[in-house]
């Protein structure tokens, strides 16, 4: 009963914050916008064991809309700081100005650490799907963790890619290794087979059907043995980002699932693309791994 009451109070508080965010005239960064989203994040960080898939229809609809609002606000925030960074001769020297830069450092370190446990050698070519106007994850991976790799960034928004390209103009070495492509991932086919690892951003596929479609497309076109690193969410943090379930990973063998309990919001799912004849077995393996989504793979 205590757990049910805790969940009820959590959903009630998040619903109240959602109502306040929904009434904002704009999600462009401002003191009011920043304070509301900061309150939302702090509300969702505590490790409350809640299964958002079991919420009532009204709460489910609220959550879907909240994730969309979070995505829109995040894009506007990143666009704003991408413009700020672009005013410097070498924007890469000033990434720390982004208020959540330390979170990206921790998340990228986590993803690379988990990836390294399963990759036989350092990736030579990687793709980041859903890189956005401020591709901090890709930049941090390129500079700190994968200094010899090519990183290809994909985003459906040409304005986002235009902003992102400006950030590497002051560093010839980074500019030579980072490429930016304007494309919907569902239209990218043969190119996906050339990457050792593909990183899938949390907001690629906000709805469940969209997320499944993106993962299935990657399963069809990634090279057998290539690694997929997908961002997910767990517990109350699933009010901020979509959840990637084991059942969604058909065509992949789920290797690791990690649920952070600190200020890093996203869970990380690491999976290997199975060989064609083993895809059915891979789907069964993913289903067997579903319990891993309920506890952190420390």
TrEMBL record:
It catalyses: 3 S-adenosyl-L-methionine = nicotianamine + 3 S-methyl-5'-thioadenosine + 3 H(+). Residues 282-298 have a biased composition (Low complexity). It comes from the Eukaryota. Transmembrane segments: none annotated. Its EC number is 2.5.1.43. Residues 276-298 are annotated as: Disordered. GO terms for molecular function: nicotianamine synthase activity. Pfam families: NAS. It is an enzyme of class 2 (transferase). One of its GO terms (biological process) is nicotianamine biosynthetic process. Coiled coil: none annotated. Keywords: S-adenosyl-L-methionine, Transferase. Synthesizes nicotianamine, a polyamine which serves as a sensor for the physiological iron status within the plant, and/or might be involved in the transport of iron. Belongs to the nicotianamine synthase (NAS)-like family. This is Nicotianamine synthase. It comes from Canna indica.
């Amino acid at each position: 009963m205590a757990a049910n009451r805790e969940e009820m109070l959590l959903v009630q508080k998040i619903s109240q914050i959602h109502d306040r965010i929904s009434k904002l005239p704009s999600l462009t960064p401002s003191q009011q916008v920043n304070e509301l989203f900061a309150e939302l994040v702090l509300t969702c960080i505590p490790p409350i064991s809640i299964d958002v898939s079991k919420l009532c229809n009204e709460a489910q609809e609220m959550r879907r809309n909240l994730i969309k609002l979070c995505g829109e606000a995040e894009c506007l925030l990143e666009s704003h700081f991408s413009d700020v960074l672009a005013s410097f001769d070498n924007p890469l020297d000033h990434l720390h100005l982004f208020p959540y830069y330390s979170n990206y450092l921790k998340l990228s370190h986590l993803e690379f650490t988990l990836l390294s446990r399963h990759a036989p050698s350092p990736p030579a070519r990687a793709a980041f799907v859903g890189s956005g106007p401020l591709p901090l994850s890709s930049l941090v991976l390129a500079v700190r963790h994968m200094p010899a790799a090519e990183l290809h960034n994909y985003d459906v928004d040409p304005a986002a890619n235009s902003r992102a390209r400006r950030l590497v103009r002051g560093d010839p070495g980074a500019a030579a290794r980072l490429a930016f492509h304007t494309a919907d991932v569902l239209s990218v086919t043969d190119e996906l087979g050339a990457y050792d690892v593909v990183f899938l951003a949390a907001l690629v596929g906000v709805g469940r059907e969209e997320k499944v479609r993106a993962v299935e497309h990657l399963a069809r076109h990634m090279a057998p043995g290539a690694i997929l690193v997908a961002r997910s969410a767990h517990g109350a943090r699933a009010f901020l980002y979509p959840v990637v379930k084991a059942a969604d990973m058909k065509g992949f063998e789920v290797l690791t699932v990690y649920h952070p309990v600190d200020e890093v919001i996203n869970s990380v799912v690491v999976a290997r693309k199975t060989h064609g004849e083993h895809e059915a077995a891979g789907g069964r393996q993913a289903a067997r791994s579903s319990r891993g989504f309920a506890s952190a793979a420390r």
